[in-house]
Amino acid sequence: MKHVLIDGYNLSLEKGTGVATYARNLCREAGQLGHRVSVLYGNGAAPSRDPLLQEIAFFDEQSRARRSALRDGAAILSPRATRAMRIPMSGQVLRRQFDARLPAHDTLYNALDVFRRAHGRYHAWGQFTPVRMGDTHDAPDIAHWTYPLPVTVPGAANIYTLHDLVPLRLPYTTLDDKRRYLSLIRRIAGRADHIVTVSECSRRDIIDLAGVAPDRITNTYQSVEIPAHYRGKAEDAVAREVEGALDTGFKDYFLFWGSIEPKKNVGRMVEAYLASGVTTPLVIVGARAWRSEEELKLLDTLSARKERGAKAARRGRIIQLPYAPFSLLVSLIRGAKAALFPSLYEGFGLPVLEAMALGTPVLCSDTASLPEVAGGAAWQVDPYDTAQIAEGIRILDADADLRAELSAKGPVQAELFSAERYRARLASLYERVS
User: Quick one: CATH architecture of 228-416?
Assistant: First the structure.
């Protein structure tokens, strides 16, 4: 049994991300392999010598150390390692509210603002931030960083998951400082004990753009674990949830879910949907992110015209939800006529796998990693060709036999990315690096 430390960088975000899902699955599967799993957070919770106050501060989102430019500067300049303190779990704090947010773990650690300060230190000096456990006898064997972070644990095997290189491949779709991003990726590639990624497409990108030797990078793919009580919920119960949330019928809408940002190609999807002429509603579940106003420009324009009393066009309606809790999202996926995911680029594409696992037909892109994930179990389109996306929507809307075929193929394809297969790949990786 090994001690595996996994970062909580994305796990601490208020809204979930694909990387947070990856980290959550990684924690669970590492534990299933029998390893001891610790999670390192970088909250701004004020440190204390009192164990009870440490526990309270960790769960009190309002209790944060006052950020000080002087203190931040001292941390960035200091050559000393950052100390990670174990968070006591005495049970005095009633933490059931956090059960759905906390990953599977044996131990939680927190190092004050470590990730934010580490980025500052790297940008100022080009140096990685070393982290040591407060319990010196409790050092991990493996530190698995789920994001490109300039952080390292001395003495451990440090491995870094690079999900994709979208900021370099599609620089116009992200806000990253590309010069800094490329510098950090190259430094990680040079000093990591091993690099992990989630598709063969991403593996090729990392080898070509970051110069990583092929034998120093492993593709473990990903898995998705949807709890049985969500997957097995009776269809009539799912139909009631769908009707209550959307005011539309079971299997009578198309569904997209994810952040509304340039690489998701929502703008072309909306344009294609409107051009398709179908009357089946389109449901978009996702928060507006960077440049979302451009992605939804057409939809916002139509909404404004409708509010001014313009005659509605003869087409289906578009329903927007900024957020859906996971339990409702699973029901929305199960209740959809088809899932639409014409993304420009994905390192993996978890929504495609989620939909297939639930037996929902999928329309997705024929680019990047998505053909690896979807195989022959989805209707694939050129994401830059609006007419082709529209034709795919029309076909899926009209052809019940095709939908039934894709619905049957989806779970079979999803099994290639089962938790068991992912666990076996992870076991092999950890055995090699430690």
Answer: 3-Layer(aba) Sandwich (3.40)
